[in-house]
Amino acid sequence: MSTPYDVVGHKPSASDARYYDEAVDPAGQPRAPYAELAQRLGWDPRQPPQRVTRAFAGGPLGDSTQILPMPLVLGGAEHRDQIQAGVAQRARALQRFFADVVLEDGRFLGAQTGLTQSLLDGILASEGTSLEELRRWWKGQRPDAIRFVYGPDLAREPGGRWVVLEDNVGCVSGCADSFLALDAYETACGLRTQAPTRPDLLVAVERWLERLQMRPADPRVVALLTDAHGARWSGGVRFQEDVRRQQLVRQLGVRVVDNADLERIADASGCGLTELRAIFNIGVPSTETWPMLLDAFFGRSRVPLFNAPGTSVLGNKALLPFVGQMVECYCAEKVILDAPPTTVLRDGLLPDNPDGWVVKAAAGCNGTGVFDLRSQTPQQLGAIEEMLESSWPEQAAVAQRRVELSRLSLGDGSAFLVELRAVGYVLGWEEVFSGSQCLARLTSQDESRGRDRALRVAPVLIAIAPDTHNPASSRP
Fold first, then answer.
1. Is a pLDDT exceeding 70 seen at residue 196?
2. Euclidean distance between the first and the last CA atom of the chain, given in angstroms as a whole number
3. Which of 209, 280, 327, 406 could be stapled to 306 by a disulfide with Cβ–Cβ 3.0 to 4.6 Å?
4. Which residues are bridge partners to 458 per DSSP?
5. What's the rounded Cα separation, in Å, for the pair 92 and 336?
């Protein structure tokens, strides 16, 4: 099969004997969600017709992002009971943890979970802050103000269970492209049989503003994306998706601003940003913008700010070993989504059996600072260990048990490794909107995970019929 959409896959080999294939079962038969989709389409989604592949040739989103003309299809019960429920559960637990250690007495730190005050101090130092600073900022604030976008990276283990590779908090990519990739696929295939689904991002903004009794078209309500200074710092664009987030938010009538706009607003008022009523911050504020946001949020006016200051520390990978315990402590529930075994590397030593582990920079993003120890030479392992010796706490790192990623196999025999980005929005105290749209990120086994590589994604469809073939299709 020709691939005009410029996909580079790999042929599964004998070394791939143990992994979960998203599209076909061990007998080589389509899994229930794919069989259902084939019935709706009238053709095998693993072998799309040329009219569909042509729709995804070039850059369908206006940049280098590639969209595979084949979706990742999840069972309805699996998506509802594992992905949506698990994302909401972890987001609530992280919100409660932030309130506990910043606004209250930090009872979790004394609960013999392994997360001590000393360890937390080191984690916060790697984020450039401290517990003392956060408590000074947040003094007198209400727990309801702890709002953030939450987007974990999920992987499916060979047995079918979804696990959390890392938590992402703040400017989370995928909150626009999860809708746009799905919309592009449904349009190309003519799948729409009812009113189109609205972007989760816009639903979240509307619900948040409804809680505040505000309207999107109010000129005092603004959305802040990556500003001009931040764009220069990142070489032009912080995320390629940034422009598309702006386009979606503008559909609501929300005013999109950057640092120059905020400076003009502050100058015109003569008293900072006190005249604004709400700021939806889903970009990367620069050093010029950040002080104004801090003054608006923590000052006398207390302007509501989505992605509240300080909450980004919740995405630090050194917290991963403890989030499951946070769920049990704060939510009194069985953990739905948990991380693989993960340990904080405080002593600079690698695990005894490095082949089964991946080392990650605790504050890294976009795939930076990730070392799969299985592929390192003895000399490289020595260099990594030497680097870790003096890294704590400013450059904290973790070791995470390696997960054999699931595969999305195409009809020509090629396949891609799959990670799933699901997004939730913490709208208020223990109120999480866990969206219906996800995004699959794809790589081949031989492909570099460097930050400069082209991003390849697949739309995610949710099957209507139950997925009876999926061993993990019900809540644990």
1. no
2. 40
3. 280
4. 440
5. 13
Each as own residue / partner, the long-range contacts of residues 12-20 (CB below 8 Å, 24 or more positions apart, any chain) are: 12/407, 12/409, 12/413, 12/415, 16/407, 18/158, 18/404, 19/158, 19/404, 19/405, 19/406, 19/407, 20/156, 20/157, 20/158, 20/159, 20/160, 20/406, 20/407
Above 60 in pLDDT, residue 467?
no
Q: What share of the chain is helix, strand, coil (3-state, %, to 5)?
A: 35, 20, 45
Closest Cα to residue 22, out of 416, 422, 421, 401? 416
Main-chain dihedrals φ then ψ at residue 106, nearest 5 degrees:
70, 45
Q: Where are the alpha helices (DSSP H) in 270-346?
A: 290-298, 320-326
User: What pLDDT, on the 0 to 100 scale, is given for residue 3?
Assistant: 30
Q: List, in order, residues 6 or more apart from 410 with CB less than 8 Å away.
A: 1, 7, 9, 46, 47, 70, 416
With beta carbons less than 8 A apart as the criterion, state whether 425 and 87 touch. Answer: no
94 is written with which tokens?
Answer: 């992280």
Gyration radius (Cα) of the chain, Å: 22
Residue 476, SS3 per DSSP: coil
Q: Which residue, 153, 79, 86, is CA-closest to 331? A: 86
- Report H helices in 167-256: 177-189, 200-211, 228-233, 242-251
Tell me the three state secondary structure of residue 245.
helix
Give the three-state DSSP class for 123.
Answer: helix
Which residue matches tokens 């626009």? 176
Residue 185 — very low, low, confident or very high, per pLDDT cuts 50/70/90? very high
**Whole-prediction pTM value?**
0.90
Burial 39-73 (b: 16+ CB within 10 A, else e): eeeeebbbebeeebbebbeeebbeeebbbbbbbbb
pLDDT at position 235 over 70:
no
Cβ 30 vs Cβ 24: under 8 Å? yes
SS3 92: helix
Could you tell me the CA-to-CA distances from 334 to 82, 337, 433 in Å, in that order?
A: 12, 9, 20
